[in-house]
## 1
Amino acid sequence: MVVIKQNGVGTIENRQTNTKTSHQYEVLPPSTLPIYKVKQEEKLKFKELVDFCVEKYPNEDNHEFLCYSPYLAYEYLKGTELFEKINSFRYGWGYFDFGALKIVGLFDVNQVELGGTPSDYDKESYSKSKWYRFSQVLIHGILNTVVMNYLYQRPGTVHSIIQRHGMENTETSSGIVKLSKHNEDNLLKSSADFITFGFLRNFECTSSILTSIRSIPDIYDKWYFDILFDGKFKYPADGNYNPQPVYDGGGILYGNRQYPKIRFDPTEQLKDFVGHTPIQREALMALDKDLESVKVEDIPEAGDIYLINNKIVLHYRAQVNVGLTPDKQPCERRWMLRTLSVESFGYMQGFAHPENPRLIIEKGCGHIYSSNELRDFDLRNPVLKNID
Ligand SMILES: [Fe+2]
């Protein structure tokens, strides 16, 4: 195996003088969030594309729109740096890839037309966020990935994530459990490859926090690496369950030893009932500490989008004063849109509803809902009530 190191000693060969010299080299790990500032002409082309789709298709869940969005995105945006940046992000799984990209200035958010932030995700007026929903899916169109809907998440392919009052001292939008860094749906074998977070507003100036496994230099040299890589770990099911079942699963780190993928949620996986051995717990805590030391904090504004590789980067948000600006003035609450997509539609069919191939019905670690459990399930409103 060719070992690429971020730090080490290398040899430079000078063929003219026929000498070889030793030198210390250092390549810094990718430790900052890359940002792409959209050009004015790209913004206009993107607007044309979204306008066309909003006019042509009834909603962003429309099957034809979801199928054609990669072709439409290519047709309208080919040759632009914007297209190149986002499309190449799909292939950025390597040793030097941070695993997230912030896109700034892709569109403006008309705050007046958008109106007030709804009290919750299911209380919004669809027509007001429609344009932004289409734009969110079209970013996945540029990526050329397949947008999916997870049963645990909200209905549809674009989810409004809205801060509720009473959530001031939490790090999650749902209010069910306290969260820290995590991959989305990391307890599933069918977890998304890519996520977009699009911000309609963030007047509270809440920080988003991203942590990339690539930012830990030469991770395969860490004492905990062999324990975590392809090890046998426990994965508790979603926190909505009471009591939470625990499944046996694979490594916290997996894939290529030099540039592994990660599935990790320390808040869930370090709970006592999960049942890890003392050395496994120690390894998990050491990884958590290293991830914490390389985290990146960023304050998104309206119109900003984070594009995240969900198998490389973990995310969460800082605590927030809901409905208050940093200088304590009342403001509209933070409103974010989220969409999840995958590289392989075929692989996902092992976890999908037989009548809705975009709907993932996995409970955890490969276990899917039985047809009996889905008997009263409404495909038009795919949220399972009263999981217990
Ligand atoms: Fe999340």
## 2
Amino acid sequence: MKVPILIPSIFDHPFTYENSNRKLLKAGDFVKVPFGTKEVTGVVWNFEQKITKKIKIKKISKKIEVPKMNSKMMEFITWFSKYNIVPLGMVLKMTLLGKDVVDKSYEKEFFKFNIIKNQNKFKLNKEQDTSLKFLEKKGNQFNVSVLEGVTGSGKTLVYFERVKKIISKNVQALIMLPEIALSNQFSSRFKDFFGVYPAIWNSKTSIKNKKIIWKGLSQNKIKIVIGTRSALFLPFKKLQIIIVDEEHDVSYKQDEGVSYNARDMAITRASIENIPIHLVTSIPSVETYNNIVNKKYGLTTLKKRYREATLPNFEIINLNKNEPEKGKWIANKTIEKVKEHLKKNDQILFFLNRRGYAPFVVCKKCNDKFQCPNCSVNLIFHKKTHRLLCHYCGHQSSLKRKCKKDNLECNILMCGPGVERIYLELKKIFTDKKIEIFSSDSLREYDSVEDFINKIEKKKIDIIVGTQLISKGFHFPKLNCIVVVDADFSSHGYDLRSAEKNVQLYHQLSGRAGRASNNSTIYFQTFTPNDEILLNVSRNNPHLFLKNELNLRREKKLPPLYKLISLTISGNNKNIINQIALDLKFKLPKINDVDILGPVDTPIYKLKKRYRCRMLIRYPKNLFIQKYFSTVLKNTKIPYGIKLGVDVDPTNFS
Ligand SMILES: [Zn+2]
Ligand SMILES: [Zn+2]
């Protein structure tokens, strides 16, 4: 009997094998088959596949004794492959563990994830209870509901309660979180509620735990998994609900390797499984907001902060009137405000989303900027290591350079502040205070992020200088003052989501303050006090912002009203990639209402020694144009050394 077998590899179709075993094979069964010179794991695919090529058909070696892949997972893989224009075999690979299934038994290991029942020390308040009832009323079939609530309003408790009720019927739940939000703080809250530490699936999970979780889910022995985007591909046997927490977080989008949006794919998986999915957020993404407005998604809102804590006040410090001294970045007015907070024993955060000491360095004689030799970006000076560093490729160099003007050494000027520079400035102002930097560089010196977080929680640090990293999901009870060092929203003009990202970022950031207080303030130092984005942030009316943003996107024919597919061509010769892009554009089908924009150089036109150019396919959202374009894209011969990156619903335009 001839059987189609899908292999976890770059191929977009199954291969035909002969089954000479007496055992009948069904779609979804895992098997071992010879492939090339190796033996690999594959899955019996749908039988409708026609065999056209006459090739020597090899025999299936054996059936692997694990629960078969269910038909819904197969449907999900197929749809994922079509939508994201990714070969079927590559999607299959994402559902396995290093191209393999887990056939070992872990029966004795599952108990540690057993949910302990009757853990009932939590009581929902009235608002939370109303939200829970709203979600329950939507039923247990496919529906998308948004649970919106200001930071600290207790959204987690609502969906924990929802999950608890559902899994009591011997079914499974998936809770998705962005990587950074998956902290020990979250695990502790989970343990408080469910009585055990959660089964966590992310990049840090050990191989052994991954095997236990994979196996436990395939047998319905593990009920809840908390995971980052890759958890979406786990082999749940009886998945009955998906929660996507922080649904607005851009890290749900993977844009390296296989590009996909895990939030959107989670909605697809829920729809195929015919189960409810809840999107949880403090401000919905513009995409989600659009679906709320169109009544495609339900919405329930929590308006009150826990223990009646209020949101922080906003205060703009106009740097035109309070300009810091030359070479300094913190205004005297800001220093006065911070001193008042310190008197009250408040913790302070200075926020600046720039690692290192100075974001760029120029020579006073030849006026040349120090740029990365591999990328078209400026090198960042890091004082701690006394090196110039490229944040894209990791290239490092010293400050020494022969000057183009006089062949002597360049005379260096450090431009602008990074967190290290602010840290040093603060050290001089607040000499008796404990000050530390919270950035990916400084965290490397700690054993874990958790150590550092603990120090902040216990208030062993008075003043934190932090990058974006600190805005996500942590709770710091004494943090009542945030200073945004440089509230300048003019950059990133090429990113269509920059306004949205800024509103999200500063909203998240302000959510860190005043968790246990009624008197917290966020200060914005700015030279542009009338900037629309800044006003949006301080107005604290996210729905008004979303409404305006949606209108703007409609006018400009941008997502979510229109859809985009990005085609990025990269290689080490600029002319060749441009020519290939133009050839490809010529071959792409011409369809009414579908625009093919470009090719143009990407804003960072050189990255890791490769030149890059991009085309954008723009199309009305009701059109599934992948089916017209994927054939051309798959059959286009790309010369050796050139790469074509396909990104459906792109968010990264750098
Ligand atoms: Zn570089
Ligand atoms: Zn010079």
